């Protein structure tokens, strides 16, 4: 009896059960729609590159469907991978990137540690200053920097221009500020008590950095490493300006300068070279993706 | 093991004085608790002993040596932090042995010390786990283990139990006391929780606004507070402070709380307060447990009065009653069977044998 009266007294519910999940379903549909659109948009160029790289020069210039390979061939790949010149570019790029990553980390990790942890006069201003230098566009700097190296060569007799290793001095001006900034954010998110505990345990500043901070901030460190690698691997403007001899060129510049002869574009090899050049960063991203995302988000929210 | 002495220690941040000239002598093996409200300078004092903060003025001595300019690692101290501060990438054993490894102790000795500390703290099974796999209480044990293995001269605890839930806090409090009974290392412990202070300490140092209000054993602080601050800070619910003045009435000294409420003082108290000027504005300090339900047989010095209760809080073993006395809110503790009800009249008894008399202006207990 009583249950009947309660049923009658209960207010009719206007809210339908499951409306939350229905909202969610629609949100998901829209996100899939836009994500698919975005994926198609950003994947089209590499797919077109892949298709073109598998064609012979004759087929590329033939008036057939450009989105289909009728006579697939690996001649572009064979041609590039057996060309000493291309391997030289690849080797130069690898050398430059590895050295730049190393130099960047050696500078920015201790710098970030000092700026985040050792309270000294002006450390906060300096930290902001480091980030501001990153905001200066590279295209603004290449002429003054060229002048600097030219003058340096005149004064000391050490000619750095048109040597691949000149890039080792230039790239860090792009990578160090940003990596330092990432690492400052990351180090700042580590509780202060952790270094105090280490100091009381008898660790020096250096030991605190190497044995506590670097292992704890490893995701951030990897994010910074990937960033530095990508910047130095993909840089085009600076190597174009600072290096000219073919044996000193890095991959992006090398492809353009050697595979475009006058107004003749060797499209098959250009596409192949670009694809091969994109491979190392892709492989590194694939392996370190989880770390990379964890690193960026942690730095962003807690820094 | 060592004694610790603070001599006129001052800490200034720009123009703010966080610690204003502290003198404190801590004996070897002693368990000292610094207690006070937040911002009273207790943590700063501890951090100065640790060497994590510079001293602006004065001297700190550990084992007789002035350590003002000695870096933390050379002070031979160990510290336990509120948020444990365990190294997240190391196992429990690695966390505990980190300090010893930095000092290049032989491997066998490190292992022996870690094993011994783990056994003492009952964390032997957890030795290979990472901190994130541990509960709050277990992490706190590891943090203590990290301090114990170093076998330092002094243990410093900075609110180590504040992150734990109430039940675990009580349990860990007992653990800390047990550990101290076993290792007997001089300990300085900071907390804002007066119960922790009372239960753990050999001596409690009550701090307020950068100064020491009183140093004493838990019982001394409770029964013989020196100032209004200490009287109000130690004990829960807090001591009642009721405005009053002294009067002579027919050759006996009496205390007047209101126009129609005055009680003769017990002889011992009368003798003690007789010299006070009658005009002075005073406060009667009375702990809730000395305001109980009235019994038929009253001891000498216990006076009864009638009041109307505003709120009652049954706590199980006792009932707290709240009422107003001339506008002053007052709390009493009565037997749960005494029939206290919200809004009901009740006859209460005031035990003046345990009263305190305070100067209202200076806050000094007379």
TrEMBL record, chain A:
Entry's Gene Ontology BP terms: transmembrane transport
ABC transmembrane type-1 domain location: 90-288
Task: Please name one Pfam family that this protein belongs to.
Answer: BPD_transp_1
Q: InterPro entries recorded for this chain?
A: BP-dep_ABC_trans_perm, MetI-like, MetI-like_sf
One GO CC term on file: plasma membrane
The way it spans or sits in the membrane comes to: Multi-pass membrane protein
Which PROSITE patterns does the annotation name?
ABC_TM1 (PS50928)
**Membrane-spanning regions, if any?**
30-51, 89-116, 128-152, 164-188, 209-230, 272-294
Subcellular location(s) per record: Cell membrane
Keywords from the named record? Cell membrane, Membrane, Transmembrane, Transmembrane helix, Transport
Q: Which Gene3D superfamilies does the annotation name?
A: MetI-like
Task: State the similarity comment.
Answer: Belongs to the binding-protein-dependent transport system permease family.
Q: Under what name is this protein listed?
A: ABC transporter permease
Could you tell me which species this protein originates from?
Bradyrhizobium nitroreducens
């Amino acid at each position: 009896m009583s249950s009947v009266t309660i049923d009658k007294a209960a207010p009719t519910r206007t809210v339908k059960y499951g409306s939350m999940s229905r909202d969610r379903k629609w949100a998901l549909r829209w996100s899939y729609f836009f994500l698919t659109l975005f994926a198609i948009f950003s994947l089209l160029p590499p797919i077109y590159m892949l298709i073109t790289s598998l064609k012979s020069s004759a087929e590329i210039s033939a008036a057939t469907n450009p989105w289909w390979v009728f006579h697939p061939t690996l001649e572009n790949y064979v041609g590039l991978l057996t060309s000493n010149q291309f391997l030289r570019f690849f080797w130069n790029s690898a050398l430059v990137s590895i050295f730049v990553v190393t130099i960047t980390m050696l500078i920015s990790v201790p710098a970030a540690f000092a700026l985040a942890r050792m309270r000294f006069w002006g450390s906060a201003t300096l930290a902001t200053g480091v980030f501001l230098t990153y905001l200066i566009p590279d295209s603004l700097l290449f002429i003054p920097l060229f002048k600097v190296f030219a003058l340096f060569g005149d004064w000391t007799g050490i000619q750095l221009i048109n040597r691949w290793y000149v890039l080792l001095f230039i790239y860090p001006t792009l990578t160090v500020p940003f990596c330092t900034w990432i690492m400052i954010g990351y180090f700042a998110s580590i509780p202060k008590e952790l270094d105090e505990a280490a100091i009381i345990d008898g660790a020096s500043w250096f030991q605190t950095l190497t044995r506590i901070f670097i292992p704890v901030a490893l995701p951030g460190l990897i994010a910074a490493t990937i960033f530095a690698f990508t910047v130095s691997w993909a840089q085009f403007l600076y190597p174009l300006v600072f290096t000219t001899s073919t044996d000193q060129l890095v991959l992006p510049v090398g492809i353009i300068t050697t595979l475009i002869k006058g107004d003749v574009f060797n499209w098959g090899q250009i596409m192949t070279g670009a694809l091969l050049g994109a491979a190392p960063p892709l492989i590194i991203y694939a392996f370190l993706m989880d770390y990379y995302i964890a690193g960026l988000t942690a730095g962003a929210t807690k820094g | 093991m060592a004694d610790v002495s603070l001599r006129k220690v001052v800490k200034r941040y720009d123009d703010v004085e966080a610690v204003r000239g502290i003198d404190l002598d801590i004996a070897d093996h002693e368990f000292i608790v610094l207690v006070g409200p937040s911002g009273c300078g207790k943590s700063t004092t501890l951090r100065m002993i640790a060497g994590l903060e510079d001293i602006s003025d004065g001297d700190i001595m550990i084992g007789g040596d002035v350590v003002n300019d000695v870096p933390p690692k050379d002070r031979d101290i160990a510290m336990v932090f509120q948020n444990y501060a365990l190294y997240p990438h190391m196992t429990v054993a690695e966390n505990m042995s980190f300090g010893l490894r930095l000092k290049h102790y032989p491997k066998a000795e490190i292992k022996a010390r870690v094993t011994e500390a783990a056994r003492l703290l009952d964390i032997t099974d957890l030795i290979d786990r990472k901190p994130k796999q541990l509960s709050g209480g277990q992490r706190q044990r590891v943090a203590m283990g990290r301090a114990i293995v170093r076998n330092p001269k002094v243990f410093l605890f900075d609110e180590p139990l504040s992150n734990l839930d109430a039940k675990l806090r009580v349990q860990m409090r007992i653990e800390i006391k047990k550990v101290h009974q076993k290792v007997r290392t001089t300990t300085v412990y900071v907390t804002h929780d007066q119960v922790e202070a009372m239960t753990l300490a050999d001596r409690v140092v009550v701090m307020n606004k950068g100064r020491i209000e009183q140093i004493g054993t838990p019982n001394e602080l409770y029964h013989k507070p020196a100032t209004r601050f200490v009287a109000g800070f130690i004990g829960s619910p807090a001591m009642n402070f009721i405005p009053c003045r002294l009067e002579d009435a027919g050759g006996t000294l009496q205390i007047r709380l209101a126009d129609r409420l005055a009680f003769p003082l017990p002889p011992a108290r009368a003798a003690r307060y007789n010299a006070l000027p009658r005009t002075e504005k005073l406060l009667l300090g009375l702990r809730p447990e000395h305001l109980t339900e009235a019994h038929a047989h009253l001891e000498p010095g216990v006076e009864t009065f009638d009041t109307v209760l505003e709120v009652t809080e049954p706590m199980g073993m006792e009932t707290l009653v709240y009422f107003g006395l001339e506008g002053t809110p007052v709390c009493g503790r009565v037997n749960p069977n005494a029939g206290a009800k919200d809004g009901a009249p009740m006859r209460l008894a005031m035990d003046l044998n345990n009263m305190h008399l305070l100067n209202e202006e200076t806050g000094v207990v007379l």
